[in-house]
Design goal:
- Pathway: Cofactor biosynthesis; 7,8-dihydroneopterin triphosphate biosynthesis; 7,8-dihydroneopterin triphosphate from GTP: step 1/1.
- The chain is α+β, with helices and mostly antiparallel strands and about 210 residues long.
- It has two domains: about 40 residues, GTP Cyclohydrolase I, Chain A, domain 1, CATH 1.10.286; about 140 residues, 2-Layer Sandwich (GTP Cyclohydrolase I, domain 2).
- About 40% of the residues lie in helices and about 20% in strands.
- It contains ten helices and five strands.
- The chain has a five-stranded mixed β-sheet with strand order 3-1-2-4-5, with helices on both faces.
- Helix 2 crosses helix 3 and helix 5 runs antiparallel to helix 6.
- It is elongated.
- It starts with a helix and ends with a helix.
- The N terminus and C terminus are likely disordered.
- Bound molecules: zinc ion (ZN).
- The site of zinc ion (ZN) has 5 residues, from loops.
Amino acid sequence: MTSSKANKTQPAAERPSRDEAEAAVRVLLRWAGDDPEREGLLDTPARVVRSYEEFYAGYQVDPREILARTFSEVDGYDEMIVLKDIRFESYCEHHMVPIIGRAHVAYLPQHRVVGISKLARLVDAFAKRLQIQEKMTVQIADTLNEVLQPAGVGVILEAAHQCMSTRGVHKAGVTMVTSRMLGTFRSDPSTRREFLSIVGNPGAVAIANT
Ligand SMILES: [Zn+2]
């Protein structure tokens, strides 16, 4: 299984200083063909470095910690819990450009449930890193499965990759769909169908990938 490695955050000691990070941005500005000393760009390195703190905030978060507080009093509720259309912004680990999409996260509780905002925060904890969509899908599903130990987990991600729309093949409007089904979502076709119909059946790919 994947997650102990996947969940590991970067040790602080390996982190360069803010000055080093800003110097690196100045190099990239020169590489782009511009002059980092011209007025309009003087504050850009500092802004870019601050933006990186937002874009990559997930490295500072322990995804398991987000799910640690659960509620065991579910009053006999044993139906599927679905949070759909969770918008996320991630960054492709090959080109460092945005991957923007929606996540649908579902589980069939067995003993414990979490507050629904926790599912959205779980998505962000993995999105705000350098990612590939397939890996992110697995990380979200496996973490939910390991921490909550539900009867089943279903995760579907639909996203547009700017590395495909603004460079390379330059194909805009293309959406990639990935999914991971665990437990009853994998073994029971009717559970999977229910999930897919709730989230609006994001495409045959989601079924093929299971
Ligand atoms: Zn890319």
